[in-house]
Design a protein that fits this description.
By secondary structure, the chain is an alpha+beta fold. The protein is built from five helices and three strands; from the N terminus they run ααβααββα.
């Protein structure tokens, strides 16, 4: 797991909000962009950082790109944090 990339990606509030949106299911890039008061280019960069951290996956369907949450990285991070905390359940 690239924990530094994961932590960098999670450090930004906009990226955390994108992850929260994707909890409900996949969204097209335009649908994500419509929910933020920033440019499409800024959202595109946020999506790239999340993708590089393997927190999201993308699928192209025609002219649209859909994004969905990759929970396996979050599960690995949760386990690592539990171990760091000393949680005996980890």
């Amino acid at each position: 797991m690239g924990i530094q990339r994961t932590m960098k990606a999670l450090a930004d509030p906009t990226r955390r909000e994108i992850l929260n949106l994707l909890k409900a299911g996949r969204l097209a890039a335009g649908e994500i962009t419509d929910r933020f008061p920033v440019t499409a280019a800024a959202i595109s960069r946020h999506l790239s950082v999340l993708k590089e951290a393997d927190l999201i996956r993308d699928t192209r369907e025609g002219k649209y790109i859909y994004y969905d949450l990759n929970t396996s990285v979050l599960e690995e991070l949760t386990l690592w944090l539990a171990e760091l905390k000393g949680d005996p359940k980890a």
